UniProtKB/TrEMBL annotation:
This is GPI inositol-deacylase PGAP1-like alpha/beta domain-containing protein. Transmembrane segments: none annotated. One of its GO terms (molecular function) is hydrolase activity, acting on ester bonds. Gene3D superfamilies: alpha/beta hydrolase. It holds the Pfam family PGAP1. InterPro entries: AB_hydrolase_fold, PGAP1-ab_dom-like. Residues 61-98 form the GPI inositol-deacylase PGAP1-like alpha/beta domain. It comes from the Bacteria.
Amino acid sequence: MISTNVRGGERDSLIDADLEAVWNEIPLTKDDVSLSYKYLYPVYACGYNWLDSNVESATRLAKRIKEIKNTYLAKGNKCEKVIIVTHSMGGLVARHYSEILNGAENILGIVHGVMPSIGAAATYTRMKAGTEGNGLASHLATTVIGQTGTDSIMEAVGAKILGENAAEMTAVLSQSPGPLQLLPGKEYGMHWLKFQAGNQLCSKPETDPFDDIYTVRGKWWSMCEDHLINPNNVSNNKIQMDKDWESYFLMLTEKVQPFIDELAGKFHKNSYAFYSRSDNYLSYGNVIWRAVSPMVEAKQQMDSLLDARGVTQTDVSNTRDAVGVATYTSGSVNFLSTFKLSQPEEPGDGTVPVRSGNIPRNYLQSCLEVDVGHEPAYKDSDRARDFVLRAIVKITRAVNETSLAYK
């Protein structure tokens, strides 16, 4: 995109161009572009294991950047800082490296694409119902089989790979800190997990998502269902289930929650970002469990439903059965209620809702809004690519504060 310094190319075409940024629209000037031609932009990639902790991935990124810099320094060339371009979770990796591992001194600037900056509620739904109908599934299918096809076919193949239901997803995610570090933290806000039955509406979390949702055991709505953690424990041995739950609990409290809490509100000072606001790619902003039968008319009945375990252990898709208690003057009666997981309702990119993709302006130099799916966010949007190119050129101005500045 910018590794060649041929004048008259894409950079020049963006001079004075209006990309209609959400805020702080800052067209390139001739001086911006002229300065960029004085430097080379060799492009490197840094992959990571998305199942592993993003702390480990950030450490790997730190090592990779050090290796790249040393390669040039060993040849007598100057190489002081890098520009990082991220996609999705990669943004969290870059932010952790920059702000927590003190890597900011090695970074000229960062450009984020479709980053779930404060988490994605879809992480909860994947634990409860599997992966279906989202860009991640299609992307993984394309990567594995090496070709593209219709959306429905690619989503189906991707779901097969990632996990079609709660049993398959829980067995993996319950021991994988990386994906769970995408869970909504306190920054996301409260009351995004909702329960609706008749005229009764309840919501969680009330104070902390880890205490109120992620570490809650034994409820039909619990994010992690203890009997699904270990597929080898077919007899549901209680001692084994307790050990498995303890491992999951420790991973959450020692690796997931600290990562989310520590990163909150931390961005490199020279950051740019784009996100999607699309009605074509609705995302989970709120997650709603709606009772399809019977209707609940009293708070006591609703409370009893939320305190119940699932009726069976075979519910692993988007419905759960629970037994509530209705109390009358004549006595109490048990009743069965079936809850169904809602479809996503918030504009976004199919994975990241607007509330998480739209980073507060005090953290960014500029921000662009596009209409695009999560996985192909760079590929499918000319405006996104132009914005990233422009951001790289704008970031280059900070070189004047380094030893690479032309005097």
